[in-house]
Design brief:
two-stranded parallel ribbon, 4% strand, transmembrane, low-affinity nitrate transmembrane transporter activity, Major facilitator superfamily (MFS) profile domain-containing protein, NRT1/PTR
């Protein structure tokens, strides 16, 4: 420690200044007394609280919808997927405001307050008389009493208020945490890569706690308390975040033009110059002294933005080579983003059909205690919490020694490994569901949905564990990839793009479920998603998802093969 302090003391102030960062008073900051793991710990704390709150709602939401709100299984699954989709797409809006106007710190504060308000109202809605207990229905059971209608309206209003809160919170917190590490410093560069691993570890710690504590409270004690506790935890998390204010590094807002305008102008000029010949572009590149690179040869139509439509070269009428390359980095993300949607569709099943599947099985631990079906989601978190330290402390050093890369393997290799494990998890899920249906048939329980199938819920454990392993690789890899592969000023937007994968994936999952429900339920027969899962065919759905996952993996490998990393970020 003394040697470290001596070394720091002898380092010139200029060398110790964090790159492109200021303190909370707008002054240049030093690496030695700001940022790093100390600041990141406050930020991780608020994220643990937020994940505790989010999964306190989402993990058991399908149970609340099919229970107190009285919805069908297919309708509830579609509602969960729709809400999850909106919650994952709104970060694009939150990130835009953060990167363009408010800054990440202010956005986190405002979004957290909105989040807390939504959680409080959600708890209030659960305290009202439930729809399932309402006797004020007409003969066709379509009109609810005014109090029940108010409960439903307040519930969904609160639910989507939480989604808006998450929309501002989610993309900014992680980007703000990663900003606490200076990539110009070799040690902090390695620490930043490690940050993404431990960030996800913290998220899963919060998820693990909520799945064991809140799901039990919601299933056995009170939904009001089950929704109220997340609100309290979120308040504590916000206070922890504010405590770190004086230690944070705040990114310097560039005097350059808004990055959205810069990138947009490249596309506009390229379209306006669509008749420009390749020889004219080549001549302009030579005049600028631009050497041909692998990147410059890709998406060459954008190189037309180097020329003005009227032949003028006045500043503001043409784009620089750097601006064109900036636009190309955004386009390169599109194929990876699209291929990742297949992974996101599979991911959406863990909080819907996996939970309903477990609810039909033998959940007994002791004679008087049954494990809540949603609690098995905790094994995804537990797998991640066990494997991330192994990955970070054992796998990465070994891989680094073999490949020479700071993170051991590239971000794209990590994501691809996760997608493969996700496909395997669907194969296992299909096989287990086939056995569950066979067991129900053997014991004459096909028409007795309220009787537990004599097959232990622990049969579902392999698919949950494989889902956790796939998250360690794909989820963390996607976070790091979309943070590093966008312009620096758009890193909140980059993480929002990562989140939007799961938003669109949830909508696609909802569409897929609705389409299959309609096609397979025609003529009055039981659909694949019948309320009585013993006469349904979730196994067919899982086989379909396994096939889609294989297709998505093939598309991903094709896209990854031609991807060109932003310089210095192959990590």
């Amino acid at each position: 420690m003394a040697i470290s302090n001596l070394s720091t003391a002898q380092t010139p102030l200029l060398d110790d200044t964090a790159d492109a960062s200021l303190d909370y008073k707008g002054r240049p900051v030093r690496r030695s007394n700001s940022g790093g793991w100390r600041s990141a710990s406050f930020i991780i704390a608020v994220e643990i609280a937020e994940r505790f709150a989010y999964y306190g709602i989402s993990s058991n939401l399908i149970t609340y919808l099919t229970g107190p709100l009285g919805e069908s299984t297919a309708a509830a699954a579609a509602q969960v997927n729709s809400w999850s989709g909106v919650a994952s797409l709104l970060p694009l809006l939150g990130a835009f405001f953060a990167d363009s106007f408010l800054g990440r710190y202010r956005t986190i504060i405002l979004a957290s307050l909105l989040y807390i308000l939504g959680l409080g109202l959600l708890s209030l809605s659960a305290a009202l008389p439930s729809v399932s207990n309402s006797g004020d229905q007409n003969t066709d059971n379509t009109i609810l009493s005014s109090s029940a209608q108010f409960q439903v309206i307040l519930f969904f209003f609160s639910l989507y208020l939480v989604a808006f809160g998450q929309g501002g919170h989610k993309p900014c917190v992680q980007a703000f945490g990663a900003d606490q590490f200076d990539r110009q410093d070799p040690e902090e560069c390695k620490a930043q890569s490690s940050f993404f691993n431990w960030w996800y570890f913290g998220i899963c710690a919060g998820t693990f706690m909520t799945l064991w504590i809140l799901t039990y409270i919601q299933d056995n004690l009170s939904w009001t308390l089950g929704f109220g506790i997340p609100a309290i935890v979120m308040v504590v998390g916000l206070l922890a975040f504010v405590l770190g204010t004086t230690t944070y590094r705040y990114s310097i807002k560039s005097d350059e033009e808004n990055p959205f305008l810069r990138i947009g102008r490249v596309f506009i000029l390229a379209v306006r110059n669509w008749k420009t010949t390749s020889s004219a572009i080549a001549a302009e590149e030579v005049a600028r002294g631009t050497l041909p690179t692998e990147s410059s040869k890709q998406f060459k139509f954008l190189n037309k933005a180097l020329l003005a439509p009227d032949g003028s070269k006045e500043q503001g009428k043409v784009c620089s080579t750097g601006e064109v390359e900036e636009a190309k980095t955004v386009i390169r993300l599109a194929p990876i983003w699209a291929a990742s949607l297949f992974y996101a569709i599979v991911y959406a099943q863990t909080i819907t059909f996996f939970t309903k599947q477990g609810a039909t099985m033998d959940r007994s631990i002791t004679a008087g205690f049954k494990i809540p079906a949603a609690s098995l989601l905790s094994f995804i978190s537990l797998t991640i919490m066990v494997f991330i330290p192994i990955y970070d402390r054992i796998f990465v050093p070994l891989a680094r020694a073999l490949t020479g890369k700071p993170a051991g393997i590239t971000m794209l290799q990590r994501i691809g490994t996760g997608m493969l494990l996700s496909a395997i998890s669907m194969l296992i899920a299909a096989l287990v569901e086939m056995r569950r249906l066979k067991t129900a048939e053997e014991y004459g329980l096909v028409d007795k949905p309220n009787v537990a199938v004599p097959m232990s819920i622990w049969w579902l454990l392999p698919q949950y564990i494989l889902s956790g392993l796939s998250d360690v690789f794909a989820m963390v890899g996607l976070q790091e990839f979309f943070y590093h592969q966008v312009p620096k000023e758009l890193r909140s937007v980059g993480l929002a793009l990562y989140l939007s994968i799961f938003g669109v994936g949830s909508f696609l999952s909802s569409f897929l479920i609705s389409a299959i429900e309609k096609m397979t339920g025609e003529g009055g027969q039981d659909s694949w998603f019948a309320n009585n899962l013993n006469s349904a065919h979730l196994d067919y759905f899982y086989w379909l998802l396994a096939a889609l996952s294989a297709m998505g993996l093939a598309l991903y490998l094709s896209s990854a093969k031609s991807y060109i990393y932003v310089r210095g970020s192959t990590l």
